[in-house]
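In line with agreed milestones, the collection of sequences with tokenised folds has grown. A representative record is reproduced below.
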Amino acid sequence: MQGRLKLNFRSNQALVVAASLLSVISVPVAAHAQKAAVSKPYKVGYFNLTMVKLACPEAAGSEALRLQAEAQLKRDAEEGNRKIEKAQNEKKPAEEVQKMIVQIQTEINAKQQALGQLLQTSSALANEKIARAVNAVARENDLDLVVDGAGVFTGGQQVLENGLDITSETIKKLQPAAQSAARPAEASAKPAAQPVKKNQ
């Protein structure tokens, strides 16, 4: 009984010590938090993520892949159900039917998992490309912060009124035609010194 009381006393004592340590530690934090906030102007940009995704070939491909995967899984499930129904109509033994159900379900689950991983990879590549385009446009416009305009739940109107809409610029960065047009322009800007030397 005494051992138990001592243990409780020590744990209570430890709590008191911990509480006093916390109060000592929190004093400088509280003092630091009371410093006057320095206002700094930030240039904010926003874009419409849905429109950008529609313009991104990788995102469109990812969505098409998702729809194909769902349709294929639905067909597989329907085909599996037909096989099971046929086996039941043919009065196959219950054990055989159960084995068939497990096998079909296992196959569908494996396909679903594989397609899920494929979609995740495809979606990650699309998101990465969109992020690169947004970052490039933000640098070109000296923006400190860029948000998805549709994803702002509070203060969204202030963002729209005071921020810069970079949706169209971001979409241009994602267009394959714009990217391929930039390459010949860069090539034509280089001096054609080698062909001149060959003619001489």
Summary: DSSP finds eight helices and three strands in the chain. Residues 1-31, 185-200 have pLDDT under 50 and may be disordered. The first strand starts at residue 44 and ends at 47.
